[in-house]
Every structure is written in structure tokens, then in C-alpha cells.
Amino acid sequence: MIGEEEKNEVLEVLNTGHLSRYGSDEDPKFLHKVYSLEQEFAKRTGASHCVAVSSGTGALMACLTAVGIKPGDEVLVPGYTFVASFSSIIAIGAVPVMVEVDDSLTMDVADAREKTTSKTRAIMPVHMLGNPSNMDAITALAKEKGLFLIEDCCQALGASYKGQMLGTFGEMGAFSLNNFKVINSGDGGLLITNDHSLYERAFGFHDQGHMPLRKGSEIGKRSLIGINMRMNELTGAFALAQLRKLDFILHSLRTKKDRFKRGIQSAHLEGLQFRTINDPGECATLLTILLEDVTSAQKVAEVLGTKTVDKSGWHVYNNMEQILAYKDRDGRKLYEKHMLPKTDDLVSRAVNLSIGVVDSGLGTDFGINILSTDSEIDRKAEQFIKLVKPIIG
Ligand SMILES: Cc1ncc(COP(=O)(O)O)c(C=O)c1O
Hints:
Blueprint (H helix, E strand, L loop, with lengths): L3 H13 L16 H13 L3 E5 L2 H12 L6 E5 L4 H9 L3 E5 L9 H6 L5 E4 L11 H11 L2 E5 L7 E2 L2 E2 L6 E5 L12 E5 L2 H11 L26 H11 L2 H20 L6 E3 L11 E6 L2 H10 L17 H4 L16 H8 L1 E5 L19 H19 L1
Parallel strand pairs: 2-3, 2-4, 4-5, 5-8
Antiparallel strand pairs: 1-9, 6-7, 8-9, 10-11, 11-12
Helix pairs in contact: 1-8, 2-8, 3-4, 3-7, 9-13, 10-13
This protein binds pyridoxal-5'-phosphate (PLP).
């Protein structure tokens, strides 16, 4: 999905030679691509404010800092996610508390409730593989317990739940523009909020404490200590062209996934389910199947030339040695392998099929892609049935 539009946007910036996100409005060479990206993304999500940053990890850190998460505070986060959901919390000194997932492979809200303690300050649902978390239950829990709600939307840019865009349910939402995401600029991130003071704080954290959209060094106006995770104009220009394709990309993914899924369903294979999708506004980047037991799941994965989710890479906490080894400020080890039995059971019986995201780290070695034609999709579904039917009948 990279073409003339991206080239033209980037060339415009190259031709002026102005690469920083800041510049004078009077300077014809300053094309404010990063600012335009922020404006267009805020409009697209219905949020009042957006800050473009250098990664999804950075976006999460800026959100956590903006709401005031402090060292020692606990943040609820699901055990099936990318490592950045944990590392962003640890990087600001707070404590990720791992929560089970349910058969949507997103946060199990009953377990989140169980794990809420007097130290819990925030809940961070992850809309995993494009699937919205159960936002009715999560917003209710956050409200009841007085928790900040920060949505990790890194894998779900453009998705919605009951008509409302993800990222707008709580205080803040964070998105990634890395190589494997719905739209990408190689690397990059976005965060959104409806709260002006959170916007100012997140903006400041992303740029050495400065107030939004500074025009100079602005000494005397910095209210917090920030770091540098600014996006430059080349990345902003590229991301802008990608954002303008978002509706087309999502429509293609949803249409192709629907066809592929219906093709597989036509065989009425016993013992094969699909993970629960919490809202049709999902991104449709992947199709996840759930088998009845581990043995058949492994055989199915093998004939498809792929792996079950637990064995496919780094999105399951059991495979994150650096997180498992982590000790808190008091030297306590917080995590151990197989501490989430429900999640372990689900991911050992799950296989991800690709629709748009082709990432062997997610175990998507079998499936279709965003360019697949109808007849290619039908052939893939037939191939799936032919390979899987002998195993699960
Ligand atoms: C769920 C989730 N959270 C956070 C991130 C971090 O995003 P980035 O790679 O842009 O830092 C990712 C990206 O892989 C992700 O999938």
C-alpha cells in the first residue's frame, strides 16, 4: 500500500529541505506535515488533540506520564501483547500487573477486577490483533475503581467499538506506525486525548517539557521534564499519505477477511472456532482460529506451515525472558512462566491466519494478504479445508 502518494508527500518535504516539525508559519519552506498529521488523525478519531511521536512505545510512555503514573503504581495489562505494553510501564518506574485474556485474546475483565489492588492506578487494555477489547466492561471497571484508562491501540489503528473510535474511551489512546501496522511509516506513533491539560503534558514529555507547537526555545514555560521523541517532517509526510488511505485499507481488509472466513466456514469443520470479535469495527488484520485441544492445534499449525500462537514468537508473556527476569525496586521477582493458565490454554490452541498483517512474530505464515483477489482468497480457503479436515474432521 505504498505508492505515488507517499513518494509525492516525501518529495515535497525533500524539495524544501525543512525536516524539523517546528518552523515559522511565514516560511514557505515549512510544510508542517507532522502538524497536519496530528490534525487529520484527531479529526479521524474524533479526539480533540493528537501528538505525533517517534514510536508506539513512546506514545504509551507519554500517556502514562501525562496522567501522572508514578514509580510503584500498578497498571493492569493483558499477558498476550507486544512487549512494549510492559516495557513502557516499567520504563517510567511503574509496575505492570499481568491479566488473563479471554477468548477474544483481549483483556479478561473479570481477572482485571480480581487483580485490582490499592496500588492500581491505571488499566491498559490492548486491542490485540485489531480486535477491540470489551470496552463497556473496561470503562465500567475503570470508573468504579477510579483508574486511569489508557488504551494500547498500537495494533488497532482505525478500529471502533459500538461506533466510537478506539483510543477515545478513557483518558488517552496510543497508536503505532511501525512496519507491521495497519498504516505505517517505518516507525512512528500517535497519541490522542480529549483533555487539553493531558495534551500539554504528553506534548511536553515528547519534547523536553515544551508547550505544544513552540516557536522558539520558550524558556520559562516548561512545567515538566520531558525527553525527545519528536517525529520529523519526512516521517510525518509519509504517514499523512498513509492515513489518507486508511478507509480504503480497512474496507479491503474487512471485505477480504469476511470472504476468507465464510469460505472456511462453508466446510462446517467440527472442533474449529474463531476467536470472539468484540465489535465488527475491528481492523480485520488477522483471522484467529481456536482448536479444541493442543494436539490438534499443533497438527493444524504444522500442516499449514505455521505455528500455534504460544510458539510463534514474542507476543506471549511466557516468551519474554527480559520481562520474566525483571525485579521491582524492592528486588522482588514479579512474574513467572505459566502464571496465567487461562491465557496459556487459549494461546496454545490458537492459530493466527494472515489477512493483512504478515508477521511471523505473530504466527501468520498461512493466509491471504491485502492484495489477494477473490479467486485467490477462495483457493486459500479451499486449501485450508483440504489440509485441516483430515485432522479435525
Ligand atoms: C500492542 C502493541 N503495543 C505497543 C507497540 C509498540 O509500538 P512501536 O513498535 O511503534 O514502539 C506495539 C508494536 O509492535 C504493539 O503491537
